[in-house]
Write a structure and sequence with these properties.
Layout (H helix, E strand, L loop, with lengths): L3 H22 L8 H25 L13 H18 L5 E3 L6 E3 L5 H37 L25 H12 L17 H4 L1
Antiparallel strand pairs: 1-2
Helix pairs in contact: 1-2, 1-3, 2-4, 3-4
């Protein structure tokens, strides 16, 4: 699925996503509706991690190949946007001491609309990775089945296995070959000799 550089990038994105989940879990906000927003955001990050881990898993083993549909720029863009989300979630000036409890209360930094935008971003990346994974798995299965198909030795395109053999067996197609030779030697003959027949009747051999 992926080359070494691409696989390493995916691992880094997984790590950032897990850090985001950890930060979301540290919030105890009193903002109305924030609990539901945090839950939705965490669910979307969890879903993205699940897809990324499948991508990472597909990159392991001797049969692993570089993805034909997922490029480094897509992974880098996802990583960049997740890093921005992580930085916003890191506790900073928006925290206070809960009175009488001595616990840190991290104020949730997003409005519901802001959470919606982040969820859309996460879903977009999840869809991109999922699509790439599906296409590459399908291509891998097709390649595997094609490799299992039997092949006729010497029947491949441009095969030279029988290049020194006569094109026709002795005493076969005598009349037709005579017509072709006479046509080619006739200066007043037609420009085209139309050779037609059903599949497998030897047109290519005569030609």
């Amino acid at each position: 699925m992926a080359g070494l550089g691409e696989a390493a990038s995916v691992i880094a994105v997984i790590q950032i996503s897990k850090e985001i989940l950890f930060l979301c879990g540290k919030y105890y906000s009193e903002i109305k509706g924030a609990e539901r927003d945090r839950e939705r955001l965490c669910n979307e990050v969890t879903a993205l991690i699940a897809v990324l881990e499948k991508v990472q898993e597909s990159a392991k083993g001797p049969r692993a190949t570089r993805s034909s549909t997922l490029d480094d720029e897509q992974v880098k863009k996802c990583s960049s946007e997740l890093e921005e989300l992580r930085e916003v979630l890191k506790p900073g000036g928006k925290r206070r001491i809960m009175q009488g409890l001595g616990l840190l209360d991290f104020m949730w930094p997003f409005t519901t609309k802001g959470v919606e935008k982040k969820i859309e971003m996460l879903d977009r990346h999840k869809t991109t990775f999922n699509l790439a994974l599906t296409i590459d798995i399908k291509a891998g299965i097709e390649k595997q089945y094609l490799a299992m198909l039997p092949n006729a030795v010497g029947a491949a395109f441009n095969s030279y296995r029988l290049q020194h053999e006569p094109p026709c067996l002795p005493d076969t197609r005598v009349d037709l070959l005579k017509q072709v030779i006479e046509w080619s030697a006739d200066p007043r003959g037609k420009c085209i000799f139309w050779l037609s027949g059903m599949a497998g009747t030897g047109k290519s051999t005569i030609a």
